[in-house]
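Example (one chain per record):
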Amino acid sequence: MSKISIIVAVDQQMGIGFENKLLFWLPNDLKRFKALTTGNTIIMGRKTFESLPKGALPNRRNIVLSTNPLTTCTGAEVFTSLESALQSCSAEEKVYIIGGETIYRQAINLADELCITEINDKAPQADAFFPTIDLNIWHEKSRDSHPMDEKHLCSYAFVDYIRK
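Predicted structure:
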């Protein structure tokens, strides 16, 4: 079975998006996302795929989940379920679940690792949320905190969790 990681940025209320857009623009979060996912497989929902400014992300195997079997996404493979998408992955593939809310809820019980960017702020509006991280299931492996600066309008921390 592939190693499954979830990667997400959340605000203080576990918000992850509003109207299919990120809540905060954090260049270092985007750099971390690219560094972790490049060369690996990413699985996302159709709406997340549609939110990508240039379509499929380069140097990654892009998998899109859609309940409509006729959906096509340029540069990506489309599956109708998370289970069938995961079955298409080899044991050597590292898989990152990159959103959105529905896909995170399906994947959290299958994941081996959570790569969370905790944003120390509340978005004015959010309509998509990450599930609560149950600390009876997840153990904080590492935390790398960063202060606010000229490129980041709020402080944040990269927090990795592993399943207990």
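Caption: DSSP finds four helices and eleven strands in the chain.
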